[in-house]
Design a protein that fits this description.
The complex is a heterodimer. By secondary structure, chain A is mostly helical. Chain A has 4 helices and 3 strands; from the N terminus they run H-E-E-E-H-H-H. Chain A has a two-stranded antiparallel ribbon with strand order 2-3. In chain A, helix 2 crosses helix 3. The radius of gyration of chain A is 26 Å and the shape is flat. Chain B is mostly helical. Helices cover 67% and strands 1% of the residues of chain B. Chain B has 11 helices and 1 strand; from the N terminus they run αααβαααααααα. The longest helix of chain B is centred in the middle third of the chain and has 33 residues. Chain B is globular and about 60 Å long. Classes of the chains: A mainly alpha, B mainly alpha. Chains A and B meet through helix 1, strand 1, strand 2 and helix 2 of A and strand 1, helix 4, helix 5, helix 6 and helix 9 of B. Strand 1 of chain A pairs parallel with strand 1 of chain B, so a sheet runs across the interface.
């Protein structure tokens, strides 16, 4: 019987060390490396990795587009960019936490 | 915990051979064979026939061919060594997680190991994401971006449903997935088991990139997919990870939700036959569903998973909590 922390550690070490060994085996047994210049659909594209490759911003855009209803809710109700809105949210949240902690202490002292 | 060297050897055997890497990867190729056969029959094709009896060894041949091919390395902006390491880490994380299952010769079981399982399963997701994001090709990045959107819904659903089922069977504070696989199930625990099972089934389909949730992989028809510009050994490792993930989740569903050898026991050979039958049934159900459905667009997929998988997992957690705090 181990505790969950140790079990997580055992599994992580197994995954990382085993992964390293497996990666080295795969890298050694492969037939070699053929190096090419960057290409796009088989056409050579001199600098596409600098210019039109999606950056982190585009990835975020993709996520925002996919989760648009949730993101728009967050933007219009929570993170509006107005500091007063943020304050009222945080104070309301702190009030909820306070009530929960008081009730918790009350019910199970 | 002090391990003596016999235990250590047994642990290494379990991780590397049974039920770890060797067994799980063979089970994964078998899963892929079923998937390809079912999809082929649905489309009036033969499917794999050439290698082995009924083409059973075709997925293994495909993967070996890729592993022994030349690696195509793009000269700039392609961190293929790191990606290979991350994908291999995912593979070994799945191999290690099988030690929570009762089929393993050495079982590591602890309270709250359901949360450890959820944590370890994320390594394989990280491997999937790394392949697209490490590629200098915009198509790979788009694929991983889609995968990330799916992950935002699927990972919470997987975490909640695995915890909820474990909690329903072993108690909210214990929530041991390992104990839950051999626990007795009463009628009052079945709502959480059924709801969690439905959620976990959809999670399995989404995580193994089966249709209708295969848009992150998106083969030739859609521009952009995690492996759009990957070939050779890296693609081979991706295939291994992909197959192992599908096999692992189907096995988890078999042992946790369909109760493994029930009504027999793990000591009974008939129980092991029944585990095999149930596993094939789970894979057949998933692949038949996959072969008869069209691909969803990414936001449709996310909405469907959120509506059915995530809500079902939350309902399962509610049912588990209700049973634990009110009924029991």
């Amino acid at each position: 019987m181990v505790d969950p922390g140790t079990l997580g550690l055992i599994f992580s070490v197994t995954a990382l060390v085993g992964g390293l060994i497996l990666a080295v085996i795969v890298a050694v047994t492969k037939r070699g490396v053929r190096e090419t210049e960057p290409y796009l659909c088989g056409e050579s594209e001199a600098d596409f990795s600098d210019s039109i490759s999606p950056s982190a911003t585009e990835v975020q855009w993709g996520l925002e587009k996919t989760l648009s209803s949730w993101v728009s809710f967050v933007r219009t109700k929570i993170h509006t960019g107005v500091i007063d809105d943020w304050w009222s949210l945080m104070i309301a949240w702190a009030a909820i936490l306070l009530i929960v902690s008081v009730v918790r202490g009350w019910v199970w002292p | 915990m002090a391990m003596n060297w016999v235990e250590l050897l047994l642990y290494l055997f379990a991780v590397a051979v049974f039920p770890g890497f060797v067994f799980l990867s063979l089970l994964g190729t078998f899963t892929e064979w079923i998937e390809r056969k079912v999809a082929a029959r649905a489309q009036n094709r033969m499917g794999p026939t050439y290698v082995g009896p009924m083409g059973l060894l075709q997925p293994i041949a495909d993967i070996l061919k890729l592993l022994w091919a030349k690696e195509l390395v793009i000269s700039r902006g392609f961190s293929w060594r790191v990606t290979l390491f991350l994908v291999s880490t995912g593979v070994m994380a799945l191999s290690a997680s099988t030690l929570l299952m009762p089929i393993s010769p050495i079982r590591l079981s602890t309270p709250l190991d359901s949360l450890v399982l959820v944590y370890v399963l994320f390594y394989s997701t990280l491997g999937f994401l790394a392949i697209g994001f490490s590629s200098p090709s915009p198509f790979g990045v788009v694929g991983s971006s889609r995968m990330l959107s799916i992950v935002c819904v699927v990972e919470p659903a997987a975490a909640i449903s695995i915890y909820a089922i474990s909690a329903a069977l072993t108690g909210m504070g214990t929530a041991s997935v390992s104990e839950a696989m051999t626990a007795q199930v009463g009628l009052q625990q079945s709502p959480a088991l059924v709801l969690g099972g439905v959620s976990l089934f959809l999670v399995m389909m989404a995580k193994s990139l089966l249709k209708p949730f295969d848009i992150p992989e998106a083969e030739t028809e859609v521009a952009g997919g995690v492996v759009a510009d990957v070939g050779g050994p890296l693609l081979g490792m991706f295939r291994i990870l992909h197959d192992m993930e599908a096999a692992f989740l189907a096995l988890l569903l078999t042992l946790l939700v369909l109760r493994g050898p029930y009504p027999f026991s793990y000591a009974d050979p008939l129980g092991w036959v029944l585990i095999g039958v149930k596993f094939v049934l789970v894979v057949l159900a998933a692949t038949t569903l996959s072969a008869s459905l069209g691909r969803l667009r990414i936001e449709q997929g996310v909405a469907l998973l959120g509506k059915h998988s995530l809500l079902a997992s939350i309902a399962a957690l509610g049912a588990a909590a209700l049973n634990y705090y009110v009924v029991a």
